[in-house]
Amino acid sequence: MLRLLPLLLLLAACAAPVAPPPPPPPLPYPAAARDRLLRLALEEWREWGCRVSGEAGEPVAGACVPTFPARESDPESFPRVLAYWRSVPDAENAIPRNRVLYAGALRGEATPLWAEPYWSAAFISWLVGAAGVDTVEFAPSASHSRYLDHLDAVWAAHPALAAFVPRDPALHAPRPGDLLCRDRSSSPLAHWSLRAAERGRFRPMHCDVVVGVAPGMVEAVGGNVDDAVTLVRVPADPAGRVLPNPRPALVIMENRLGRLPPWHQENRS
């Protein structure tokens, strides 16, 4: 039995779960990355036809002249959504499936082009990557929950260096560049901290990029909203914190691009 003890200990060690290594230290980015993120989000919104959802009124993010009213099912939208999917490593069969549908649309068939899988997370991943943010700081994914898990892990390992920091929507008033995220599941989490117990598992979520704020209003641009890239207007309280519309936000990822040393400038918003 004594001779078997080392072998048993070795087998037990092999069977024990191995914790993933902590993410490498992130690098700071200039404010130009955040500015580019916002510019790209608004440009995509305009190209999709300036669609607005939510509260009525003139968008505070800026005037918008529709250049191409479109929906995901329009054949003209095929390269737009394809570009978003190309930015994520876990696109699975989204592209092959929709190439077949696109070919049918070109033959005049009515097809549910890009109706599934949902491409909202691919849109956010494309925006952040196109803004010039590397995968160390933001891991692109076809799932909002997975890239949010990565952002949360980076912050937990490197709180002083993380480009995105999870904030409680009940306490944090979002600013342009932040990610406003909601839990879309049938049993939503009551607080973002509860996500730690299930990190790595899929959960239906949705995030938009905040592009404008005004008294009583937060505006954010998201993909796959009303089958397009849409600007969503969400009511806010007098302190600028988002109100439930129709369900409360789960987490706000504060965008610190350009706000960390050596790029931090006190006079920037």
Q: Strand order of the main beta sheet, please?
A: 1-6-5-4-3-7-2
Our count of helices gives 6
Shape: globular
Number of folding domains? 1
The main sheet comes to: 7 strands, mixed
Question: What's the average pLDDT?
Answer: 90
- How many distinct beta strands? 7
Q: Provide the low-confidence segments as ranges.
A: 5-9
Q: Round the Cα radius of gyration to an integer and report it.
A: 21 Å
| Binned strand content | 15-25%
Order of helices and strands: HHEHHHHEEEEEE
Coarse structural class: alpha+beta
Distance between the termini: 69 Å
Protein name: DUF2272 domain-containing protein
Signal peptide: 1-15
Keywords: Signal
Domain DUF2272: 75-243
Summarize the structure in words:
With 269 residues, the protein is an alpha+beta fold. The protein has one domain (29-255). The chain is 28% helix and 16% strand. The protein has 6 helices and 7 strands, in the order ααβααααββββββ. The protein has helices at 5-15, 31-47, 78-85, 94-106, 120-130, 144-157, and strands at 52-54, 164-167, 179-183, 205-214, 217-225, 228-235, 251-255. A 7-stranded mixed β-sheet has the order 1-6-5-4-3-7-2. The radius of gyration is 21 Å and the shape is globular.
